[in-house]
């Protein structure tokens, strides 16, 4: 990954442009602007902003699966991870990150792990608070993160309950005595 604080666009200029003082000056000026924007972005904390601004920032950051009906915390989380998501697009890890944001917990199970056709995957979560609306929201957002060559097979919402389980057993050792009544 490029460290924009220690980066110079003049390093990337092709040889014919390096000889031009005007092109070098333009590259240096753009480098300063990029470093300034990067410093400002590092200061931005979406968790401390009003919810109305989050919608505007989401458009500017190109948060593909952003939905204005999400909670303020989910919006801030998506904005905070927008750059990270763009780097990891088309990977199972990006899908798992989306699962964590929308469902709270869950995982991607690839086709070879559960015997499906190649290219398919399923999403599983054990979070009892997950609703069908959240699952539909996840499916809408999924297309902006997953590989174009992979297909969602199913979203499994399983519920795990804690319960007491009691069991008992009897063991008998000894002789077998048969009694018959004689009349």
From TrEMBL:
<protein>
    <submittedName>
        <fullName>Phage tail protein I</fullName>
    </submittedName>
</protein>
<dbReference type="InterPro" id="IPR006521">
    <property type="entry name" value="Tail_protein_I"/>
</dbReference>
<dbReference type="Pfam" id="PF09684">
    <property type="entry name" value="Tail_P2_I"/>
</dbReference>
């Amino acid at each position: 990954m490029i460290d924009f604080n220690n980066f110079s666009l003049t390093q990337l200029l092709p040889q014919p442009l390096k000889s031009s003082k005007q092109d070098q000056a333009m590259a240096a000026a753009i480098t300063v602007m990029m470093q300034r924007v990067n410093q400002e972005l590092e200061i931005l904390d979406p968790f401390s902003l009003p919810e109305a601004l989050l919608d505007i920032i989401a458009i500017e950051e190109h948060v593909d699966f952003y939905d204005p009906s999400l909670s303020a915390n989910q919006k801030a989380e998506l904005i905070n991870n927008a750059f990270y998501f763009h780097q990891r697009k088309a990977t199972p890890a990006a899908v798992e990150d989306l699962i964590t944001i929308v469902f709270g917990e869950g995982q991607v199970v690839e086709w070879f792990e559960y015997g499906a056709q190649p290219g398919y995957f399923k999403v599983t979560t054990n979070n009892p608070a997950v609703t069908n609306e959240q699952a539909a929201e996840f499916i809408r957002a999924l297309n902006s993160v997953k590989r174009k060559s992979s297909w969602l097979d199913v979203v499994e919402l399983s519920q795990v309950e804690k319960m007491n389980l009691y069991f008992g057993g009897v063991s008998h050792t000894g002789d077998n005595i048969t009694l018959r009544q004689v009349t």
